[in-house]
Write a structure and sequence with these properties.
Radius of gyration: 20 Å
Number of helices: 12
Protein name: NAD(P)-binding protein
Structural class: alpha/beta
Order of helices and strands: EHEHEHEHEHEHEHEHEHHHH
Domain NAD(P)-binding: 8-158
Oligomer: single chain
Distance between the termini: 58 Å
CATH topology of the largest domain: Rossmann fold
Strand content: 5-15%
Organism: Chaetomidium leptoderma
Number of strands: 9
Largest sheet: 7 strands, parallel
């Protein structure tokens, strides 16, 4: 009985991936979902997966022995990048070490657009990771580890999520004086729904793509941040201003208000979002530099469903949209 292990099932991507893997699993395929803390799963989530035939267990990317325990007997392991910026390549190395020690044949990984700048050619693989935009840096290093592991692999490179503007960035607009301070330069980006990324990850886990392939996941259209801003406010009635800023000006504005340069050790208690300065800047830079302009059909090819547009995706976030006092 082939065994498939999905780690990180407690997160936004992992939870959707787990549900979709169960939806498409064939008879005789064994599924095991892991999370670092079972107690943090939503009530009934683990029981629901178990009722559909999956096993659920704890494992931690920082504990190789816990990974070996759940990987034992698995053919495929899927792992998801964490919020631990700078630590993710080390965590990936632990996953790969445990996978090789237990006879795993193939690994799947959620990477990020821009990782190709350090991996998609012999010249790129010689590039110093520090010359690559901040957000893809960890993913460049992780992809290099995967490709050098000797294991078969599948990688998905996600564009920035549509969900970020609706559920994350919009929460800072009132703090900014009813403004979205933005450094994307008016360029278009084909933002992808996090839900679609989760389904694709479940599909990759279950073998819906050829081994040793990389897939770029986008939404169905490239839009500007101003278009997203205008749409959100048209729904909520919020009166606010979209403000174009340079990277330096945006960094200075947030740094003056205490936004830290390091996500791991920073104090976010008085801030509207947990996002360090390099992370914030790079979200706009990835769009401004044209890294998110291309639209692909990878979501539909791998899941049989058309990629969600941002307006459709935002229906579930409408209660979070900011409103004037």
């Amino acid at each position: 009985m082939p065994k498939f292990v999905l780690t990180g099932a407690g997160g936004g991507i992992g939870g959707v991936a787990a549900d979709y893997a169960l939806e498409i699993a064939q008879p005789g395929q064994k599924l095991l979902f892991t999370t670092s803390n079972l107690g943090k799963l939503p009530a009934g989530r683990a029981d629901g997966w178990k009722a559909k035939g999956a096993e659920v267990a704890e494992a931690n990317y920082d504990d190789v022995e816990s990974l070996k325990k759940v990987f034992e007997g698995a053919e495929v392991v899927a792992f998801i990048s964490t919020w631990a910026l700078g630590e993710r390549p080390r965590q990936a190395a632990n996953v790969l070490a445990a996978a090789k020690a237990t006879g795993v044949k193939r690994v799947c990984y959620t990477s990020f657009i821009g990782a190709g700048l350090g991996n998609d050619s012999a010249e790129a693989r010689q590039r110093d990771v520090k010359t690559i935009p901040f957000l893809p840096q960890d993913h460049v290093q992780t992809e290099r580890l995967i490709r050098g592991s000797g294991l078969q692999w599948n990688i998905q490179r996600d564009y920035l999520y549509q969900d970020n503007a609706a559920a994350f960035f919009s929460q800072s607009w009132k703090f900014c004086g009813d403004r979205w301070l933005n450094n994307s330069g008016g360029r278009r980006g084909a933002y992808v729904a996090r839900e679609d990324c989760g389904r694709v990850f479940g599909a990759l886990l279950m073998g819906k793509a050829e081994p040793d392939t990389c897939h770029t996941l986008t939404g169905p259209e490239a839009v500007t941040d101003r278009e997203i801003f205008d749409y959100i406010n048209s729904v909520s009635g919020y009166k606010a201003e979209f403000v174009d800023m340079t990277d330096d000006a945006l960094a200075a504005w947030w740094r003056e208000r205490g936004l830290p340069d390091n996500a791991i050790n920073g104090d976010f208690s008085q801030l509207p979002m947990k996002l360090c300065i390099p992370d914030l800047l790079c979200c706009g830079e990835m769009v401004a530099q044209g890294h998110m302009a291309e639209v692909t059909d990878a979501v539909e090819k791998l899941t049989g469903r058309k990629a969600l547009g941002f307006k459709e995706n935002y229906k579930k976030y409408e209660q979070l949209f900011p409103r004037n006092d």
